Amino acid sequence: MDTSKIVVEATGLTKVYGSKTAVDNISFAVDRGEIFGFLGPNGAGKTTTVLMMLGLTEPSAGRVEVMGLDPRFASIKVKQMVGYLPENVGFYGDLTGRQNLLYVARLNGLTDKVSHDRIDQALDAVGLKDEGDKRAAAYSRGMRQRLGIAELLIREPDIVFLDEPTLGLDPDGINRMISLIQSLSLERNMTVLLSSHQLHQVQRICHRVGIMIKGKLVAVGTIDELAKEKLGVEQDTFTLEEIYMKYFKEA
User: Can you give the pLDDT at residue 227?
Assistant: First the structure.
């Protein structure tokens, strides 16, 4: 990994809640423009790791840097450079999709002229150009997820954190979301950190993955690298699920 391209780096990152260790001494780095997948079952520590990167909770030990900044001491600057799409995206149901985006744009200090241009482009990019003037309460889950991506686009962050972005979507919605995530990296050079336990979807889009089990980061690498390490194969005859289950059974 080229250290000059690193935008997220964690060293010995640990989070303890009472007697429970949610994140246990993990270290990793992510390059600019990379799609990096955090894999693991519910309760593995994925979301807690993301919250520490965002400065929304403090580490008990270790540290994490985002764009060279420590979120504990530069949380506002970090939040200006990153975007976060939670598992359950929240919008004002009585406002239209466009009005929700305008509200967010104003909160982020954008002028209305700049905002309107970006909103039009973002709604078009996520396939909601003809739905932008409908109230958000009438949106399906997939539409709300896409509106969440549009919100990220108008803010133009360097890094985006996506927490289970395809959960609960139908096959068409999943394909739309995967295409959108790929476009963030390929077309906009955004760094994407994706937290998920949908292994077959992660295999389609992630450059590298980190497998988290019981708060520990048990493996980091490309799918090819992990397959060679754990299954002893080099050809494309394996699935990420097979690799994951090997690590899971040994954890």
Answer: 82
pLDDT of residue 4: 65
HEC sequence for the chain: CCHHHEEEEEEEEEEEECCEEEEEEEEEEEECCCEEEEECCCCCCHHHHHHHHHCCCCCCEEEEEECCECCCCCHHHHHHHEEEECCCCCCCCCCEHHHHHHHHHHHCCCCHHHHHHHHHHHHHHCCCCCCCCCEHHHCCHHHHHHHHHHHHHHHCCCEEEEECCCCCCCHHHHHHHHHHHHHHHHCCCCEEEEEECCHHHHHHHCCEEEEEECCEEEEEECHHHHHHHHCCCCCCCCCHHHHHHHHHHHC
Give the domain ranges of the chain: 3-89+159-250
The class that CATH gives domain 3-89+159-250 is: alpha beta
Rounded to the nearest 5°, which phi and psi values hold at 162? Answer: -115, 120
Other C-beta atoms lying within 10 Å of the C-beta of residue 151:
24
Question: Residues 7-25: what's their mean pLDDT?
Answer: 97
* pLDDT at residue 37 is higher than 70: yes
Rounded Cα–Cα distance for residues 161 and 193 (Å): 5
Q: What is the pLDDT of residues 76-109, one digit of tens each?
A: 899 889 999 888 888 999 999 999 999 999 998 8
165 pLDDT higher than 90? no
